[in-house]
Amino acid sequence: MSFLAPLYLLAGLAVVGPILFHLIRRTPRGRQVFSSVMFLQPSPPRMTKRSRIEDWLLLLLRVSVLVLLAAAFARPFWRVPETAAGEKKPGRQITLLVDISASLQRDGLWDEVRSRVDRILEETQPEDSLSCVLFDSSQRVLVSAAAWDQLPVDQRAPLVRERLAEESPGWRRTVLDSALIKAAEELADLEYQHREARTIVLISDLQQGSHWEDLQGFAWPSEVQVQLLDVGKSASPTNAAIQVLDDPAASEDIVRVRVSNAPGSTESLFLLSWLDEFSTEIDNAYENATSQPVYVPAGQSRVIRAPERSPEIRSSRLVLTGDDHPFDNIAQVASRARWPAEIVWIGDSTTASLHFFLEPLFPETSRRVVRIVDWSKAEAAERPEEAALILCATSPDGEQLEWMRQQAQRGASVLYVGTSAEQTAGLFDLLGQPPVTIADASADDYFMLGQVDLKHPLMQPFDDPRFSDFTKLRFWKRRELPKEGLADGQVVWEFEDGRPALVQWPQGAGQVLLLAASWAREESELAVWSKFPPLMNALLEAGRPPALTRVQFTVGESLRLSEILSADQNSLWVQQGREQPRQLPSTEVLKFEAPGRWRIGNSSEEASTTGAELVVNLPPEESDTAPLSLDVLEAAGVLLESEGHENPSADAMSERQLLNRELEAQQQWWRWLLLTVLGLLVVETVIAGQRRSQPEIGATA
Fold first, then answer.
1. Which of 70, 319, 487, 685 could form a disulfide with 275 if both were Cys (CB 3.0 to 4.6 A apart)?
2. In which band, very low, low, confident or very high, does the pLDDT at 223 lie, cut at 50, 70 and 90?
3. How far is CA 15 from CA 7, 214, 405, in A?
4. Can you give the pLDDT at residue 83?
């Protein structure tokens, strides 16, 4: 028999009281002389010095009451040595979460992880059920609980060790909250028969870069506890990292980087260099003609300009040396080839004044080179194969109409500038729609814009109270056409009287727009309007090939080829690193699992030479290797049972205590003991009353 509260047994020492009371004898005190016996010879009772118990039955009853009462308060129960036939012995349900993120590539950490896993496997009992899950920014089941339960006991641990030996840390970031939430939900939702405890064993370096914020909005289940086995306590705190910044304003030759130094680092001086493509060994002694020192105090970061490239060194990577952990010391740098923005002007001699404003409207930037081609002056070979923006201010002929249709289908923006009612009617030939009635109109004073669709993609830059005032723009001449005949056209601007001013029709991957007035000085103030340049440049940027909108990615991200394909393309050629280019269909998704360089082109040759270049780097959060405080997880509601830290829950108990409580609650021996105590008290009361009513014969005559 065992007791849930054994300290109450000390109350059984109270049995000493009844025993002492039964040993005490009452002796006569004083004499009383009776006249009726004055002639008799006095004969006092014979007394002995030895104490002895005269009423054993009452003593045993009283002692039994005290002993049983103390035992009842001690909450006795019988341990069950064996479960019923056909039932399993109670065990634990364990989910083993193993971190394989990039920060585990630090020296010695992965070996420490494997030793921690070995320790857990050695502690598991035959009745336990275990699943092993690897996580970084995603989760992958290494061994499921079902597979564990089906295996013989002697084959379970070797299977986990064998599969873990084939794994190694990857390059993804640590998403701790997602892994914990998914594991906790699975343990809480499923009913594990014969499982007393549900535990998540987390093996991780638990660095500050771990994403944990979503735990704050998750109601942690009370029956699931987390045992933390953190690694990396003995690892060197000196870790510096490099991150290439995407600076749209920077020129092709300027690269800006952020150098970060971990808190607690013992070094603050590092060396930044362009990495020679032919270098095989990289250590803290690496140095070349491009190397420049970088001073970053511990716990801080610096944004600096990368050193200039040397003509002697062929390189597209930067390397940082001087710390103890090289896993985050190399950064891929994308070549900053400027986008060749092709603009085609289709006009005649009557629209020369409109062409005059084109050059200032589209300046060159660090990211694009603008070329304006005049259709009337350029030879057929000089016309671009893929234009970004087409401006038509004349009545196009059949060749021009067909060419504009093809360009719009590929993704170009076509702005049809209405210069007269007759010329504007040619727009519907371009759209392949029936014509509508169009008329020229002149204002007595001026026309103003009324409704403007600020939610349209072209107008989004002006969707702000500071820029949304269009009432200052004046028109003196315009082309009037009814809304009803615009079919699937979307009205972006309206005049005050509801007449369309700017209309957009989607065409394949591109678009066609009608401007119902030109920017000639005699027709409107568009040419001197402050919002006109950003509007026209938004039209130009809308024709930028999607593949060139972003060149920097991080490990764990992905790219759908359908997002960068033209409407008439079904496949692309892709080269990863120095591998041979592969032709992939439009449905393919590029998944970036390691730092490196990718090239994308329309042919195998283009993909290996001049194709669009993408670079993939380490997620910058993984370089934040300072340890994460456990207070953060506890404040988020996680029930921790970590090494060296007490469980923060006041109600948390050990597995044995929970089993003892369950057994005692089922058996409830204390109720029977209290009933027995009541019965003994009744018997003791009756016997004591009878003994008291009998006369004592204390003397003889």
1. 319
2. confident
3. 16, 60, 108
4. 47
Please, are residues 614 and 597 in contact by the beta-carbon 8 Å criterion? yes
Other CB atoms within a 10 A radius of the CB of residue 426 amount to 19
Query: pLDDT-derived band of residue 32, with 50, 70 and 90 as boundaries?
Result: low
What gap in Å lies between CA 556 and CA 175, rounded to an integer? 11
Reported for 523-532, long-range contacts at CB under 8 A and 24+ positions apart, including other chains, are: 523/475, 523/476, 523/477, 523/478, 524/473, 524/474, 524/475, 524/476, 524/477, 525/473, 525/474, 525/475, 526/473, 527/357, 529/472, 529/473, 531/462, 531/467, 531/470, 531/473, 532/361
Domains assigned to the chain: 2-26+48-77+669-693 (no CATH), 91-235+627-658 (3.40.50.410), 240-332 (2.60.40), 339-542 (3.40.50.880), 551-620 (2.60.40)
Neighbours of 357 (CB within 10 A): 18
If one counts every other C-beta atom within 10 angstroms of the C-beta of residue 626, the result is: 16
Q: List Cα–Cα distances, 36 to 30, 483, 490, 698, in angstroms.
A: 19, 143, 137, 19
What sign has the CA pseudo-torsion 401, 407, 410, 413?
A: negative
pLDDT band at 436 (very low <50, low <70, confident <90, very high): confident
- pLDDT, tens digit, 9 for 90 and up, residues 393-426: 999 999 999 999 999 988 899 999 999 999 999 9
462: Cα separation from own chain's centroid: 33
DSSP string for residues in 174-200: PBHHHHHHHHHHHHHHS--TTEEEEEE
CA dist., res. 401 & res. 398, Å (int): 5
Torsion sign, CA atoms 596, 600, 603, 606: negative
Please count the other Cβ atoms lying within 10 Å of the Cβ belonging to residue 242: 24
pLDDT at 385 over 90: no
- Look up tokens 């995407």; give the residue: 246
Rounded to an integer, what distance in angstroms lies between the CA atom of residue 366 and that of residue 76?
83
SS3 292: strand
Compute the distance between CA of residue 701 and CA of residue 31 in angstroms, rounded to an integer: 16
Q: What does the alpha-carbon distance between residue 186 and residue 439 come to, in Å, rounded to a whole number? A: 69
* pLDDT at res. 650: 40
